[in-house]
Amino acid sequence: MKFIAAKWRHRAAEVFGIDLRTLALFRVALGTLLAFYALNRMPDALALYTDWGVLPRYWLLQTDDAWWRLSLYVISGDPWFVYLLLVATLLAGLALLAGYRTRLASIAAFVLFTSLINRNPMILIGGDGLLACLLFWAMFLPLGARWSVEAALSSQPPPARHAHASYASAGLVLQVLSVYFFSAILKDGADWWPDGTAVYYTMELERYASPWGRELARWPLVMQGLSYFVYFLELIGPLLALSPWLQRPLRFVVMALLMAMHVGFFIFMELGHFPFVSLTSLTALLGGWFWDWRARVNETRHPLGPKIYYDKDCGFCLKSCLLLREFLVLPRAHVAPAQDSARAKALLEANYSWVIIDADDRAHLKWPAFVALLRPSPVFGWLHALLRWSVLEWPGNAVYDWVGRHRAGFGRLTAALLPERAVKFEVGRAAQRFAGIFVVLVLAWNLGTIKAFPTVPLWIETPVLRLLRIDQLWNMFAPYPSRTDGWIVYPGKLEDGTDVDVLRPGQPLSWARPPLLSGLHRNIAWHTYRWRITDKRYQGHLLYYGKYLCRDWNVRARPGKRLLTFEMAYLEELSQPPGVAPTVERRVVWYHDCKPQDLELEKQRREERRDDPTREQRTRPV
Is residue 455 located within the same domain as residue 488? Predict the structure, then answer.
């Protein structure tokens, strides 16, 4: 019995375990994604996250579920505070990317990101919910055990074994696969099976289709085949990936096919960051055998590791060498003080440079030493051919010399920011048990979405779970793609009687279909928001959006060109079967009068400038 139990534990560890090197890759992808997400939101932060924008805090707190969605952004609606939180989110992403204080960075990233998406639920897409779930599981995993600042500088070495199995790793694997499996079950419309017309109707939604997607719509048989491919891959792929038999090849093939599917989504559809979040999640399925194979290939090409010599009196130099060894993935590189080698000591004292001795026993100094160090790297070896050009040697050496002249200052900085300390890479048993509870909750929540229970259990719907933002409803294009498409026109009238297009200032007002509907909006956030407010369920937001458009126009408008009134008109187009022309119906969603609410604010500002003649001089840009 003990043998059987041990055998099944081993099987479970293989199925639900994640290699530490794979977790490092997942961490790098997750941190990069979060950093770009924060940067992408900054240009629209004033409109989307402040009280000046489309969703003031007092209205947010009146909407459904607001009390179960905690957000740091509710503390203040001032722009400076919003930008401060976005910068903090950016820094948390960069810290995750580098593996700097990884546990703290993962917790900060989760809190900051969930606060961000809770601030404006009107702009959320499926990728936002999935990213929140990934950040949740990241808090319980040893993301910094490989290829990180912590792994390089910790006084306590990271775990020797690459294999990692825990409740949290099981939670992450199940989370990644649940998105596809439960999404497939929810796709129970005939468009997916047996008709195979789902991709056709998806491409008919021109608000999502890219130019390549519109070209794809010309091939009906290809679209039918893609409909079956997506449906059955999402349905069967997760089951194969969890198979305890032939686990390595099956999981790798499923991962590769799902990644290819998302690359196709990126090419043929305008889905914002959703494909990138999904690709990030799928990195967690990469088996440790892949890294072992890459290590064997690299050892065959470079059987001997390089020797890295530094000045023993320079703490900054030692840390730099350790970080390079870690991030260039050179575990067999030997790091030692130059004073321990007569040859290295002579070269260091003669050239005031670190010394790299390569596998051919050739010595390299300054910039060429860094380039030589790239050559045996299994990750960055391709850079060696690009950076070894002689034209780069002079500027590279100049940078090295500048750093060398200021190494005392860098030493003080790294002593403060990168102190040697004992890092606890694994979370404690209590935290793992807590993660184990959520493995069960997430699975039960997903089962509830497909009506596996008569009703969704109350212990799933509790506010506590919703506070954590790990909602489980993966109904993308389910049960079938929408038949409703169309475009938006906001005709407005200025003080001087001019008719304008409020969404496209400077362009003539036109009711004709734009050449590409997916190009109407600046990014996926505005795309989602403007389509969502055409839905009657969200009509309470129309007043605040109308006020925002008036403010945004009139603050910048010249006298006589301020906006007085406008309509929000939706030209709704119903998709038809192949060969049948679509029908278009014009529907006025909202009528807004700017003068009573918003021109008063502009008058106040003009009076303030008139009362204080120095104001214009003080605020004029230099």
Answer: no
Paired strand residues for 588: 569
In the DSSP assignment, the letter for residue 536 is: G
pLDDT in tens, 336-359: 999 999 999 999 999 999 999 999
Kindly report, residue by residue over 457-516, the tens digit of the pLDDT. Answer: 555 655 666 778 888 989 999 999 988 888 899 999 999 999 999 988 888 888 888 876
Report residue 620's pLDDT band, with 50, 70 and 90 as the boundaries. very low
Partners of 559 in the beta sheet?
none
Contacts of 215 (CB under 8 A, 6+ apart): none
Per DSSP, the three-state class of 613 is: coil
Q: In 17-124, which residue ranges form alpha helices assigned H by DSSP?
A: 20-41, 45-49, 57-60, 79-98, 102-119
- The answer to whether residue 295 sits within a structural domain is no
Do 74 and 207 have their domain in common? Answer: yes
280: in domain? yes
109 in Cβ contact with 96 (< 8 Å): yes
For residue 346, give its domain range.
303-417
Query: Which phi and psi angles does 305 have, rounded to 5°?
Result: -80, 155
Tell me how far apart the alpha carbons of residues 252 and 254 are, in angstroms, rounded to a whole number.
5
Do 393 and 439 reside in the same domain of the chain?
A: no
Residues 6+ apart with CB under 8 A from 1: none
H or E stretch covering 573: strand 563-574
Decide if 130 is inside a domain. Answer: yes
473 domain-assigned? no
Tokens encoding 585 = 């119906």
Rounded CA-CA distance 171/37 in Å is 24
**Looking up tokens 């670190």, which residue turns up?**
354
Task: Tell how far CA 62 is from the center of its chain.
Answer: 29
Q: By the 8 A CB rule, do 167 and 431 touch?
A: no
Domain boundary among 380, 396, 417: 417
Average predicted confidence (pLDDT) for the chain: 89
Q: Looking at the structure, do residues 24 and 150 belong to the same domain, yes or no?
A: yes
pLDDT tens-digit readout, 84-137: 999 999 999 999 999 999 999 999 999 999 999 999 999 999 999 999 999 999
CA distance 412 to 409: 5
Neighbours of 449 (CB within 10 A): 21
Residues 203 and 284 both lie in one domain: yes
